[in-house]
Structures are given as structure tokens and as C-alpha cells.
Inverse folding.
């Protein structure tokens, strides 16, 4: 079975500060990993994904994440927060080689950016 | 390229009623998945349709059913609505059943 744990349901940073959102996964098979962002009253937008290959993945809006198999982690970072980054962020996993791409989501982290 | 669209945006129903939600896939995508997102939670997988056949189902009762049409648009039907069915329902499409999913804006269902 697969699961995702997002540490910290709320994270607050100052504008210009480093953003670090934590995600740990559990999977009995090689995982595909995703970060999605959700702005208020909207659907989910794909930020980035890891499938195979390079473990440091760059996404949109200056975000990146590193797949660390030994730590079963896929933390999301951005060097300098912007006010427009305030949103809810979801980490998700799906099994590599599965019959479907069913996504298993974490409970989300709400990012607040203070001026 | 047209993204995933969903209708209606908002819906209010009473307990026991039935509801149909609609989704149009992104152009060229033949797979649709539906998710339920309760307030303060991450989305939960309901089911997936690939080439008009159900291709995987989450832990949801049979009163949640779906259809996919030849043009790859989809419907989610929920019978005998319960208060706990109040949620944001998200549709996602992908090129094939194992590819990256792209989400629509969702339908907010309120059951009174």
C-alpha cells in the first residue's frame, strides 16, 4: 500500500525567505511523485513530477523538489517566497508500472507568505 | 489547447437526492479520473475511466457511478446523497491511463 505524509499542515514564511514543504511517502514499488498547488476555490495545478532519472526536479514558478529514496522523501523548495505563492500544496504518489495512475494525496500544507 | 472543464461550478442538493456532475477532458486525453476533496483534506480517488470502461475504483460505495462517452467526456453520478457527500469534486484527465493527470476547477457540492 502507498501513503503520503505531509509534515506541517500550516507553514508561514516571510516574503523572500526560503520555502520548504515536507513530504514523505511509503511505497512497496518504485513511486512516481508529484506536487500540486491549489489556490482558493480552484482545482489542482501540477507544479512538478518525478518519474525516473534525475532526482532533482525543477517545476514551474521557481519550485523544485528532490527525490531521496533512502529517506523516502520528496520535499518541495523555493529559494525566495513571493506573495503569490500563498496557496495549499499537495504531495501525491502513484505506483510506477501500475494499471492506473490513481493518485494518493497527502493532507496538504497551507503556505502563508507574510510581507 | 483546451483544459479540463467541469460543470456546474456549484450545486446544492438535499439528502436523498441524486446528482450528476460533468467533465470535459483536455483535448487528446482519453482517460478521466474523479476525486472527492472534503474540506481540509487531500483529494480521494473515486474511480478512473479509460476508453469508456471503468479502470480502477477507490473505496467508495456503489451509489457513486460514472460514465465516459466516445468523445472522452465523463459524468459522475451520486445517488441517495448523504450529508458527508458535501465536498469539492475534481475531474482529471490524462493522455493514457498511466500518464500525468491534469485537473479541472472542480464542482462544489453541498448536501443539506
Amino acid at each position: 500500500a502507498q501513503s503520503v505524509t505531509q509534515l506541517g499542515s500550516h507553514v508561514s514564511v516571510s516574503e523572500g525567505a526560503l520555502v520548504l514543504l515536507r513530504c514523505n511517502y511509503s511505497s512497496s514499488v518504485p513511486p512516481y511523485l508529484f506536487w500540486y498547488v491549489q489556490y482558493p476555490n480552484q482545482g489542482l495545478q501540477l507544479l512538478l513530477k518525478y518519474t525516473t532519472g534525475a532526482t532533482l526536479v525543477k517545476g514551474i514558478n521557481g519550485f523544485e523538489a528532490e527525490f531521496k529514496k533512502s529517506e523516502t522523501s520528496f520535499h518541495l523548495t523555493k529559494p525566495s517566497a513571493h506573495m503569490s505563492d500563498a496557496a495549499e500544496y499537495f504531495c501525491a504518489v502513484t505506483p510506477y508500472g501500475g494499471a492506473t495512475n490513481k493518485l494518493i494525496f497527502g493532507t496538504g500544507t497551507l503556505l502563508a507568505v507574510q510581507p | 489547447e483546451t483544459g479540463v472543464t467541469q460543470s456546474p461550478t456549484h450545486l446544492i442538493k438535499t439528502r436523498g437526492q441524486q446528482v450528476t456532475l460533468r467533465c470535459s477532458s483536455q483535448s487528446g486525453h482519453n482517460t478521466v479520473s474523479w476525486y472527492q476533496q472534503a474540506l481540509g483534506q487531500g483529494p480521494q480517488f473515486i474511480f478512473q475511466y479509460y476508453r469508456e470502461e471503468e479502470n480502477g475504483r477507490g473505496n467508495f460505495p456503489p451509489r457513486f457511478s460514472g460514465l465516459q462517452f466516445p468523445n472522452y467526456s465523463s459524468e459522475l453520478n451520486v445517488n441517495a446523497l448523504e450529508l458527508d457527500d458535501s465536498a469539492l469534486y475534481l475531474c482529471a484527465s490524462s493522455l493514457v491511463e498511466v500518464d500525468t493527470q491534469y485537473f479541472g476547477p472542480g464542482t462544489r457540492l453541498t448536501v443539506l
User: Anything to note?
Assistant: Chain A has a mean pLDDT of 92. Chain A touches chain B at residues 4, 34, 36, 42-46, 49, 90, 92, 98-108 (CB under 8 Å). Chain A has no helices and twelve strands. The two ends of chain A are 41 Å apart (CA to CA).
